[in-house]
């Protein structure tokens, strides 16, 4: 029997072939496409990997003209499917003719189901020969089980994915063209608008406005410090919103030297483990340890196809009963986590933690293979370790916490104190990413008196809400049913790439804010979360068989038509509002050389600051490298040119003149004369990757460079080293030559060869 297997990607094809053939496969070419072949029993197998969708959904060419085709015509315009990988499709056709069975082995989700079905349909395959292999991990057990228990493809699941393709293409094309045309932003400067993107951006704009418009309210807290083993307590009426009330309570407490213990309780409670990883929780936790969601998702997919973790696109937070947790632990027993695994396996019973969401398509994300930090480096290892440690935490025992609370009487005034101490680490031993803050309260006896060390009145004020970061906005999108587990990180990435947001804490730019405000006023509810969430629910109902693809697409067209009518009636207002904001975003300040205006310009080599009077005035300045740059209304005190606010990771924000050669800048960046060429100046600089270093100002004529600390303040001392002539800088309270090879720099002990270390260790053991 001849079998043809179609996978979603080439590395998945290699992995599946290796498992099914026990590593005895061969690689060749069919019609220019790579095909892996092997024999398994009496059967001949061929495995071919796709590159995701080999078909692209688009409009026919006649609809591509923005100037001649009204955007509203795209709402009901037909779509066409364009083949992107013709050689792959030709190879599938050739192999399918000879095959007795075609097995779709793409990722088991909506998108994977569509990729597989659209491929075999376009190839003209006899659908009676088509089967489906469903698996959640590329391990030997899962893959062999999937191919031993084949099912039929799920057309409803594929329809749900196709509905999303059609709806997102239509909404994106129509709204993007309308807004770009109304605001005059055409060509490369077009303004992107999307069905999910725009409501998400509105969340960020609303939060920004809430923060910017926040008016803090003052309040007062009465705090006390008590006992020989000092602990803190607060007045039971805290906070006080009127100072006179707080002052009155303080007067009552004055002159009292001891407090009576009116109540004292000690309780022990369980400290429960966290829930297993869903996609959203994984991306959120990855962001906390410095891996952005987009990067984390790519790394997770690579770890999955390499057999190290289970399928990374899942909403599930409950391990299925079919998953052998001890089996996973036993696999990890021969890893760098062997000590932790041994401890967890020593439990009499393993009871995993459970989250709130349980689905049947894929389990939560867990480790499926053993990796090594010696072979796997950087963020990839960090993410793998995060998955392993989260799994260990979910099958580890609960911790134990001792909680203490007491009520103290200071005269007639009540003070409360609460404390907590970790008695047993439990799961925290294996997952160090959640901090536990201990607050100790000594043993107290009801009725006893304890000394009052101090009672103070402190003023504070209410704080605005936190800005969203990439992790928290993805969580909020999930809560509001915006997008899917597979698309949310891409939506956030688009907001950055379109320059609608900036920074680690997502701050909307003027253009992002203007776009949201214009659509909020004149966009017919397209920024409303409810409209997008409703469409998400409808697409989910297709997979459940409750609604058809055609019904949901038609419903979305009607919703879009209503929004378009509102926008057409207000196109001037939309255009004016966005144009004004774009001018504000790009405007830097006056050009002192000609009286014109300096604005941020785009070029193929990147953004720069130039005069609008060009070519009459050719003044131009580079944008600060690898930094978030904000315009200000300030002018340089030295030269009168505009100032920019420059924000770099690990450094405080800094206002600086647009002219890098201005004395106000060179006094902060020029470290001293170059000892190599004698003509240039050694200057603090930044690479494209954001790394700080020192280099000669005459580069490329002189290539002298020095490494610098990546974070923290560096003081310019205008001194040269007496030994090597390189500049001397101040770092904190220390001064040092920047030349790492200078005799004045302390030498690091040379690393001993591994063999020498092994010999020493052997001698010690002996």
Q: How would you describe this protein?
A:
Helix 3 packs across helix 5 (155-183), helix 5 packs parallel to helix 17 (549-569) and helix 8 runs antiparallel to helix 13. The chain is globular, with a radius of gyration of 32 Å. The strands form eight sheets. It has a six-stranded mixed β-sheet with strand order 2-3-4-1-7-8, with helices on both faces. With 766 residues, the protein is α+β, with helices and mostly antiparallel strands. The protein is 34% helix and 23% strand. The chain starts with a strand and ends with a helix.
Task: Please give a handful of descriptors for the protein shown.
766 residues; alpha+beta; Rossmann fold; Topoisomerase I, domain 3; Topoisomerase I, domain 4; six-stranded mixed beta sheet; six-stranded antiparallel beta barrel; globular; disordered C terminus
Tell me the strand order in the biggest sheet. Answer: 2-3-4-1-7-8
Strand content: 15-25%
Helix content: 25-40%
CATH class of the domain at 279-397: Mainly Alpha
- Count the beta strands: 30
C-alpha termini separation: 62 Å
Q: Which spans of ≥5 residues are poorly predicted at pLDDT below 50?
A: 757-766
Shape: globular
Sheet with most strands: 6 strands, mixed
The count of helical stretches stands at: 20
Radius of gyration: 32 Å
Name the CATH superfamily classification of the domain at 279-397. Answer: Topoisomerase I, domain 4
CATH topology of the domain at 279-397: Topoisomerase I, domain 4
**Mean pLDDT score:** 89
User: What structural class is derived from the secondary structure elements?
Assistant: alpha+beta
**What is the annotated CATH architecture of the domain at 279-397?**
Orthogonal Bundle
